[in-house]
Design a protein that fits this description.
The complex is a heteropentamer of chains A (487), B (297), C (248), D (156) and E (635). Chain B has one domain (2-296). In chain B, 72% of the residues lie in helices and 1% in strands. Chain B contains twelve helices and one strand. In chain B, helix 1 (2-32) runs parallel beside helix 11 (246-264) and helix 3 (61-79) packs parallel to helix 10. The longest helix of chain B has 32 residues, at 119-150. Chain D has 156 residues and is mainly α. Chain D has a domain at 3-61 and 76-114: Orthogonal Bundle (Helix Hairpins). Chain D has helices at 3-28, 33-55, 80-111, 116-127, 131-136. Chain D is elongated. The relative contact order of chain D is 0.11. Chain E has 635 residues and is mainly α. Chain E is built from 25 helices and eight strands. Classes of the chains: A mainly alpha (487), B mainly alpha (297), C alpha/beta (248), D mainly alpha (156), E mainly alpha (635). Chains in contact: A-D, A-E, B-C, B-E, C-E, D-E.
Chain lengths: 487, 297, 248, 156, 635
Amino acid sequence: MTLTAHHVVLPVALPLLVAFLLPLVGRLSDGLARLLAQLTTLAVAVIALLLWPAASDGGALVSAMGGFAAPIGIVFYADKLALMFVVALAVGLLLFRPRREHDSTKVQTLWLLLLAGGSGLVLSGDLFNIFVFYEITAVATYGLGASAHTGAGYGASLRYLLLSALGSAFALLGIALVYAAAGTLNLADLSQLAGERLTGPMGLTAFVLMVLGFGVKAELFPVNTWVPEVYTAAPTRVTAVLAGVVSKLAMVVILRLLVLLFQDPAALGFLLLLGAIGVAAGELAAFRSRDLHRTFAYSSIAQLGLMAVAFSIPGHAGVLAGIAVALHHLVVKPAFFVLADRWRGEIAGLTGAGRTSPLAAGLFVLLSLSIIGIPPLPGFWAKLMLFKAAIDAGGAGNLTAVAIILAATVIEAAYLFRVVGILYGTAPAGRPPLRFTLGELAPGLLLGAVLIAATVSVAPLGDGLTAMAADSADAAAYASRVLPGGN
Amino acid sequence: MTLLADLILMPLVAFVVGLLLVLMARRVRAKIERRVGPPFLQPVYDIVKLYAKKTQVSHGVMHDLAIMMLLGGFITAEIFLPVPGLDGLAEHGDLITLVYIMMVPMLGLALGVGSCANPNGSIGISRALTAMLAYDVPYVVVIVGACISYGTTNLIDIVQIQQQGGPATWGAATMPILAFAGLLATHGMLGKEPFEIYIAPAEIATGPMTEMSGKYMGALFVMQCFQLYTVGVLYTTMFLGGGENWLFFLPKVFAVIFISVAVTNVYGRYKTDDVIRWMWKWPTGIALVGLALVMVR
Amino acid sequence: MSDTTPVIPDQPEVCRTVDAEERGVWRRVMDRFADHCRARSLFVLHYCTGCGAIELPPTITSRFDMERVGVSPMVTPRQADILLITGYLSVKTLKRVILSYEQMQSPKYVLGFGSCTINGGMYWNSYATVKRLDQYIPADGFIAGCMPRPEAVQQVFLDLMKKIDAGQANAWQDYYLNYDRYLGNQMALFGEEWHTPVDVIAEAEHYGYVGDGTRGRFTEILDRHAAYALRDAPEDYPERGANERLLP
Amino acid sequence: MTMDAEMLGKALYAGAVCLVLLGLYGMVVPRNLMRIVLGLVLLESGVNLFLVAAGFRADAAAPILTAPFTAQAAGPLVDPVPQALVLTAIVIGVGVLALGLALVVRVKEAYGTLDTHAVANRMARETGADPAVTAAGARTPGALPVAAGRTAEDAP
Amino acid sequence: MPFALPFDMTSLDLLMAIAAAATVLLYLFGTARLGGYLATLLHGAALAVTVAMGLDLAAGAGAIPSSLRLTVLGQQLAWTLDGLGWFFLLLTTGAAFFSSWYMAGEWGRVQQRARIQHGTLALNVLTMVLLLSAGDLLGLFIGWEFVSWAAFAMMIQAGGPATQAAYRYMLYALAGAMALFAAILVVHGAAGGFGFDQMRAALPDMSTGMLWTLFALFAGGFGVKMALVPTHLWQAPAYSYTPGASSAFLNAVSARMGLFALILSLVKLIGFDTLAGLRIPMTGIESTDILAWVAAITMVVPTYIALMQTDARMLLTWHGIGQGGYMLLGILVATPLGVAGGLLHVFNYATYQMALILAVFAVIHRTGTADLDELGGLITRMPLTYVALLMGIIGLAGLPPMNGFVSKWMIYKALIVTQQPLLSIAAFVGTLGTILSVYKLIHNIFLGQLRVEHREIREAPWSMTLPMLVLAGIGFVTGFAPGLALSIVDQAQAAMGVALLPHHLGGVVLATGSLNMLWVVGVLVGAIGVGALIFYVLGNRRFETHQYDNYAGGHFLSADIRYHFSHEFYPGLARVIGPWYRGWVVRMEHGLGVLAEVSGDLWHGVFRAAYTPLYVLIVAVLGLFWAGGAGGFGS
């Protein structure tokens, strides 16, 4: 059956509905509840995929909630970028469903809430609506963060909650300022009014507040102190999804803000600053961390900083680079966390792990090579795009950012290959490190395969991404599609 | 045909002049010690007696090969060293080639002594190489300075340049400081008294020559003749205007060797690191000053 | 070893160096020239065992200046022609003297300096000294006197030169031709196990100085327990047994 | 616009800013997690008040439909959109607050203390990764000094 | 085309195909009984194709294109091989052929992981082919990364200290690669693309500041691989702990990739005249002078560090770094003589260094150790290895009969003729140091007293001694007739755009003093013949004694007392220059490591702090003020 614009709301509505049905179904039988949750996630993925052809030919699918036309009503805007991330979120949740001991109907409910919130975040075309979905995602994340039922889990989630709530308050202030200035909350409308209304100090303050607000989930510099604690305390599969996918969704929101509302160079400069400091901080902290969880947490801070730098470059080249880095990180980071799941504790204790489970160690080397950016692997092309965009954009800020990133890459290689050295070291006679069962390693291997496939087909992938980036960086096209009559 | 004559004649001339130089050295030493000194043919007698030894002890093939490299190296060096009337192959190999050809016999001797498996010899060679490093640094500075000031490294041209205006255009006249430094380095090169650490008879039993006997020792005596000759002629070629004819050439060579021989008999022996420190301080300093003057001009 | 009495060497009856094969004219001229040069260039190894050593510096330095006749001191036996033993010979020193002598290259000459080398001198009745030098190594000349003066030393040198010039000073061949007797005397003094690292027999065979006196009773004893280490691979001497313990 | 309406507008903004500042102070300074959560509440209410103030128009009537919409009082109506937003924001605030308090209870059960430093140190030791903590005890180069006299561990 | 290829494949494609097939096949069948010989066959085929390409290039074909095209994200990547690339390719395939031949015999059977050694060797050849035939800057960078990582794979397989050395190498190589990446990006910024011709077109209008940064980045990036002085710490341990034949390959060729890239970027692309134009204001010091002085220091300092080493492999690898300085200095003289000297030294170095390393590993194969204090007197047991090592050290020291002398002579001559005395003195001093340390190498291993435990050692098997001797033979032949090697160098020199040096079979004819090795070596050999004649005719027959029949002041020598001088071989020199080794660069490197750790701890503290809301507040307030200020002035 062909899907029209009105089916765009399904990825949000369906999980919400099932999420609240689950407790009831859960009373009957846990197995059924889990199955229902899986099916819903699968359904969302399928719907998003089916929407893809419709979105690609028309540029984007626009559906107004309740029939109210654009500037007044809330609009869902599903372009290729958004659908791609919805699919990624759904597949991520399917791939990394919680393990037996952490699983319960409550967790499944949070899982679906996360799916609904995440989809809504990227699809929604209204500023306040984005804020609401952001809060849903945040609440789901607090719940999942604490689902490990350990003291550290609760503490980390609580600190994350406080920080995130503070951020949300700032975001709300920002939205209020935007509304006070422009009088509307619809992104398309705002993008047209942004020229004269949002450029003054009022607009910039709103931008700063919103970036700090939405930056919490996007792991931007000042507000990402929760990342190491939550990623270490939460169950590893939750961390994989959080680090892999959810942080990208918040970054997409910031991208929307940048592209549509704030083309002001001062705003881009601010984001560039945060991004560059984030990269430096992430890599240096990772250099000193002693267990794999924390290392990968800091590494994801750095990668997100990389994305911030990319998005802060005006024009579609920056967006392309940002999306490329995001997609690459989306594939690599969860695979890293799959490895970290079995290789817990001090890195020094892992000597000889390469001998006991050669496949896992090989995967680790492949992933590190890609994240450092060694030519044939997609990581290199993403970084090349980023650097090319930064150099073409010129300007002292971009050049220093490139220099920082290059230096950070060396540090990144240092700590990653320090681990490789330990993995392939000779294990002390006492206790050989744990062995991977194929079941645990399956998601990692799948992602590794995706990485190799991307390496082989980097040319077509590159063209697809370029088209997507060109479309999503075009504010005028966005407005023309959303506003009736395109005034 | 003249080339074949040169090939044969030059080493023989070198050997004969070398014998006279050795004789002069021993005579000067005797005179300083108020002794009569050896008879005229004493060097010849020594060499013939050594070669005529009935038993010749060898320590392996490398020991023999070393003797051949020794003689061969110096014969080659003589052929590339232009002397009045005999140019030999000087235009095929210039000053730098000659300096390195002179190192081939040194390496040959070192390998031969090494294969004698006698630690006295090895210590002697280690000191000899260290001394070589010590005196070669100023010597190299002198060579570079001379070549840059003459603008060529071809020995025949160097001699011609110096002979254009008689003594005024000699190397010693145009580059006095460099010539003086060259003299100090030449003295070190000859391995004479202040820098004779590697033949220290008392400590390491004549160092490299410990296990040399019979024709091996004879070859070393021949090498000493060649070495005195080569070093003397090289210095004269570079700084004393080379020889327009033998009558002027030989006295210059003997004068150069005489200075070094005279100095040697009144000095004690330096320790190895003192040799390095002295060589790298005074001759090198003077040579660098000379080089600076050459570069300024 | 049954008979330990020292054996008195008889006088060398051969007066002129006659090599085995008959010499052509050219070889004789060369030998004549070689002897001429040998006589005029003598390197002396001062084996200063006793009190006589003090007499040597004056003979070399300015007053008596031996270099006039081509004699100059040399440090190692390898390069020396004359082994000058200047004084009494204790048993311990004799071992070193014999090793030095064997390491010298022939034609080599030994000069006993002072009466101690002739008949034990003032230590004639001492248990520790050797009374006659030439029982152990062939000697070319002796200088009498209990510390003879430099003139005496010069005289013996000049006599030796005349003999060398005439080609008669060939005591060194006697060491090869009658090695067994010398070895017997040495073993009598130092015991059967003792021998120097120098393989005298191989040298004799190499240069053709093998006489009937070269091999005998004592050389068999020598063969039993001396293996000349490296040069001979272990499998060449099966009967000598493992030669880990190579030398004393 | 009458003077008092003008004053009311200014008062609204002033009130909002005071509440926000109070909330921020409440979240940053105290060491007890409970007080921080309460600070958060103040902050959110301040933001909500700011939202309402954004839509305030001095001389307009409340936008409540009592009767079918006709050119009723023909006077200007206050902007209804921010008020709708505030409704949602308050609901979200409550939801987050409830979850926060639940977590506070859990932390109290797990660690027996609500002092942020004690909790932070216990967490770091539990995950057992931090060189800075395990190596240098409570003292970490980056963090601010622990209040004198009260080490992290002496809390019950 | 010398031989018809199946379809439109050019010879470069054929070479790439062979190299790729070799990597796969050898990884699979490396340890099979005939695996070693398969490797030698494949590398031999690669060498043959390279030689054919050489003939092709000599016949006037400017460059050999490859049909390997790649367009990614708007970038076209093409691979073509010109004279310069071909010259280094010849060295690579030659070195690979000899090391695989060395590995084919007994050495291969003894190794635990011969399969990986064969595989990584072939992988290195493949990556080097890609690097050498890069058609544009991006291709160059990708090839550069491949080569670095292939070398890393080769170093890490030995385990133990090798992993430490490999890890350190990887950090240096990556830092160099990042500098290179920055350089390419600067070019892209200026020229709008990565192509060589785009870069050349954009050169004139580049600002001097940009040219300086480009020069610094290229020199720094490629200098790391060549181990120029400040970045030289990694090369010696990395190249000596790699097992056997691969170490020989790395030593002979791998560091020269840095030189190739340096020539390509600085000489071919930027060009000597532009570089000469780059002057430090008021001092008149050109950019090439700075690099020349770095090369001079790289020549002298590592050589005197090599002098103090006690491990034979470390001694040789430290010399490898020193010799790299000679090559760079030769090229930077920028006259035809200097450039030809530098390039010829690359060829000569590859021959004798490989022979030396293979000889040392033959000694290790037999005695089990390379420690100079544990060896001695092996000449009687391993004469062929001794001959190979002897000819190698004569080449390394740059003495007449061998080819090392010819290239060093050309470098000295070029420096003297262009009136650069201090550089030429540095070159001479470097050679003196080399002579001392190579004698120590050959003395401590082969000369002196043989140890009791080494008495039963046999000569290394033929499969190991033959490659060594062939390499030494090549060294002697190209020493005797340097014209052969010079004609190979001409290819590269022509491709570099530098005027060719007129030369004949024997050497070079110059107004300021020429060199004809045919005469020099001919007379030397003849004279040694005369020496032999004198030796055998005049004296009596020689009698060979054993090592214990030695003068020891009357002492009786025996096997149980070791009567051998090898430890601390130059005590006098050590006393004088000992205090000069303060290890500044080591402390600098350590400082960098500590800096990274301290800043890491700082950020650790920030992330773990309990006062996160305070940070947020501070940044928010700063952001607002800044926004207010910027916004206010913004348009």
